[in-house]
Structure prediction request, 468 residues.
Amino acid sequence: MTRIAIRNGLVITATDETYADVLVQDERVAAIAAPGSDPAVSWADGADQVLDADGCYVIPGGVDAHTHMEMPFGGTVASDSFETGTRAAAWGGTTTIVDFAIQPRGGALREGLDTWHAKAEGNCAVDYGFHMIISDVGEGPLKEMDGLVDEGVTSFKLFMAYPGNLYSDDGQILRAMQRAEGNGALIMMHAENGLAIDVLVEQALAAGRTDPRYHGDVRHVLLEAEATHRAIQLARVAGAPLYIVHVSAGEAVAHVAHARDDGLPVYAETCPQYLFLSVDDLARPDFEGAKYVCSTPLRPAEQQARLWRGLRTDDLSVVSTDHCPFCFVGQKDLGRGDFSKIPNGIPGVETRLDLLHQAVLDGHIGRRRWVELASTAPARLFGLHPRKGTIAPGADADLVVYDPAAEHVLSAETHHMNVDYSAYEGCRVTGRARTVLSRGRVIVDGGRYLGRAGDGGFVARGIGSYAG
Ligand code: DUC
Ligand code: ZN
Ligand code: ZN
Prediction:
């Protein structure tokens, strides 16, 4: 039996903030005790380790519900392996990721899921789950969905973008949603009108508009809004809950808000890149804009206020990263002379908590909302709560001692993600994970990594809770 006492911190959950001692026994939180109270004192006396959190917050470890480790894309593969990517997550205070397994086109869901299990097993620094990307909706895969739900893969992502690759048409989407309505799964949607985007891509390239900045133009905001609206209507027809991933535009948030006002089980996430970066980054000279090519694309800076408002009103319920890193040298440059060949994705699994804490300091969100957006809400929606996403007796001891005053500069020189640039290079932020526990083990402490590959295990998820 191992006992750890975390003393004198401000314990913050999505609902409460209180000075307390958090007592950890083996992999779980055993108790939350008033500082200096009898149980806290006797525990500290008998603890194997006492962590002093004076001046720090104690928060539940981050849950990043949207990562792509080792994802094949555009003729290359995302540069973080499960080992390097989950280690970087741990450094940034994220103790659970939910990554996307991909059905091979023409193959079975099982084949894709087994492939992703093999990539992750024994390699992860923190716990992980899987969503399943259905790239080829047909009778077989639809039937397979039920079995995956039983195995703890309870969410399925469909693409309205990328025709000929990951794309599903409206009929396929409706069928998958109907199946989800029956088995309790959550459909996640990449909502962009891919057929229309491809026309604009062809026209842009024919007119000689080949630089990264045109990636933002062709992935028009109205084509995100239209697809978001269409996905919502299809989910209504099927009677299924829906989760829109990586929302980047106020026009799309408006459709989500409208649905939610009507009481529909429609949820959405945004990502730090849409809150902190813009088309100005995509337009950086000398092909530097390629570092900022992701889909949905970065938008004009004026959009950011609409996203922050959506986060405050809960029309946007989660901030995930869509972490999908490609090196500038050797990967992003596949698209020199043709922006449509730049692999889509931005690194961010390590920086999410700190950027969102900066948003607390900047007055965009409150501290409890910070915890809710980064940990509690994704845990609830994706069937991990109350094991993950909160601090309570019986919950996994996935905990972060967070120093809210620690200033640091984000940089590729110092980050732990396996990618040769930072999208936030030179950006000064205040706040940093000081100590990170994953299921009761201290894996990061005071600038040292103490964990090992294989510390993290697969988490079978339940059905998400979609109320409220
Ligand atoms: N968007 C990205 O930017 N990368 C991977 C897949 C996606 O939908
Ligand atoms: Zn996507
Ligand atoms: Zn993604």
